[in-house]
Design goal:
single chain, mainly alpha, 2 helices
């Protein structure tokens, strides 16, 4: 009878060992699968973060280039406006000298008043014309200088705002 009990005990022990082995193998397999999935998720998240960082860096670089282009356009605009103002100042000075010479050469008071009136009228008309010209030039050059900034603003809206709205 002892041998039957020993045989049953041996069978029970072998079954317990087999069950324990299956449980350990299942746990190791499940742990390995979970670790593999976690690594894959981590790798995907790292790739996404790296891609996002790269996109932000590229966007920032493009924005700096837009500001450099806008600054260059602004410098050219200021140069053009300064040239226009200088040319107008030179012309006005020459007109003033010519008017002063004419007034000094006048023979009568009526002639002095007529020359002065004509000069004042001409100077005012030139001033109004020049002001209009400078206004148009300033508007045109401001638009040109703002084009790169507007383009970057549109790119920012497309990149960051529209995806959030969707």
């Amino acid at each position: 009878m002892a041998s039957k009990k020993t045989a049953k005990g041996t069978v029970a022990a072998e079954e317990a060992i087999a069950t324990g082995k299956e449980t350990v193998n299942g746990a190791v397999k499940a742990g390995t699968e979970a670790a593999t999935k976690a690594l894959a998720i981590g790798r995907d998240q790292f790739k996404a973060a790296t891609k996002g960082y790269s996109e932000m860096t590229d966007f920032g670089k493009d924005t700096v280039e837009a500001f450099v282009a806008a600054s260059s356009a602004t410098a050219k605009a200021v140069e053009a406006i300064n040239a226009e103002v200088l040319a107008f100042s030179k012309s006005s000075f020459e007109d003033s000298v010519a008017a002063a010479k004419a007034v000094l050469a006048a023979k009568t008071l009526k002639e002095v008043v007529d020359l002065q009136t004509e000069f004042a009228k001409s100077a005012f008309e030139n001033y109004v014309q020049q002001s209009s010209k400078l206004g148009e030039l300033t508007a045109k050059l401001t638009k040109e200088a703002m084009e790169p900034i507007n383009a970057r603003f549109q790119a920012a809206v497309e990149k960051f705002v529209k995806p959030l709205a969707a």
